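Workshop exercise sheet. Pairs work together: one partner reads the sequence aloud, the other fills in the structure field after running the prediction. Swap roles for the next sheet.
Pair: D.N. / O.F.
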Amino acid sequence: MNRIFCSIAMVIMLVFASSFSYAPKLKLGLLKYNGGGDWYANPTALPNLAGFCNKELGMNLDPEGGVVEVGSPELFNYAFIHTTGHGNITLSDQEAKNMRQYLLSGGFWHIDDNYGLDPFVRPALKKIFPEASLVELPFNHPIYHQKYQFNNGLPKIHEHDSKPPKGYGLIVEGRVVVFYTYECDLGDGWEDYVVHKDPAEKHIAALQMGANIIQYCCTH
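Structure field:
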């Protein structure tokens, strides 16, 4: 198999994981970036999302996940990378090149603004793909219509600036390689109840939208 788990392999996993106990576990990757931002925020988020996808989508995701640095060759061992935080992100030329190659090779990057990340996300993406720009995805985009239907786009988990949640895509060669969730706090909604004490309906909505993102990553 290639260095990265390609979409076809993940579709096979999605179909057969629940039937074959020996199927290898896939890991969701948490991106460790430089610049001083708290990349490690929401430590229970990805484990909870993995558990939800295993139960509701019949997947075989490793609940422990993994941490990977932007410039590491280990990046190519993950089909899905998640980034969160409140502060600064800086990318070296080598890191930007590595992330670009990862995404062009079939990787998928979900960035969740945990409030304060936005001013740093956009320049970082421009360094990686100077020829592409974020575009807001319409509510009829397939990412909102996988197993779960989100006819009005992203759910609003936490309120900060009274702005509506926005879902942006970075589209390269006809494929969404980055999905950026803004003014949503999706990852906060994935966390254990004791962390934010969100209402049950928001916690479930966040997990369902997260499952849609994973399912979209698997099939596109």
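Discussion prompt: Residues 1-22 have pLDDT under 50 and may be disordered. What would you look at next?
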